[in-house]
Amino acid sequence: MTARSPTSAVPALDGRTVVITRPAGTGSPLARRVRRLGGVPLLLPGLSLRASEGPDTAASLRAALGDELLIFTSPAAVRFAARLASLRTQATVFAVGQGTARALARHGLQAVAPVQRQDSEGLLDQAALSELGGRRVALVGAPGGRGVLRSELVARGAQLREVHVYRRGTPRWQRRQLEQIRQLPAEARVLLSSAEALDNLRQGLPADAFARLCAAVAVVSSERLAEAAQGAGFKRVRVAASALSENLLAAAARP
To answer: How far is the CA of 52 from the CAs of 102, 128, 148, 163, 231, in angstroms?
Structure first.
């Protein structure tokens, strides 16, 4: 059964273990927040991220910055793109969620982003993307995923350019991390904001470790991900207001 968390100020975690599944190398800021709230963070990345290789990627990105509409699919897309080129653009910029919009703001870009449903479907609800009729649209992110944005933008008439500035993969876990998961308390919280990360954990973790993970409480960033978590074996699921850290932690702090 799922329950949606309010967006109020995050209460204390009171010693609760919080499993952080954000991509390898990106979970430390969230771990520090968990500690400040009195929780015990456990880093278990569900994804590894690496820059796309090839000399044409930077040139493709620079060309995309000259398109009419520019869509960034994640904070990682912003981070890897900024390594390749200055993000100065005259395009109207869109972000899939508020976290991506914040990342763009750090590079001086104000982005249109959904507030309620912070995913591909939420972005596609924006009026500016309803009728694209031949407009040049660039989608900056990684290959793979559900393909919802890609297919729907084309269906709406966009001249779509895709720029893959990074790639996602399966992380490697240390023996220490696996032992920590095998001893995970039943009232631990597992923060999930990516269906692909969940799938990597389900397929890659030893069966006994994943079963122990599923015995904890999943805290997910959307109703869609709640269904995926339940399908993977989680019996208790909390739905946060979004994938933003404060919303995930607010849901994790609930009894």
So the answer is: 23, 30, 21, 10, 32
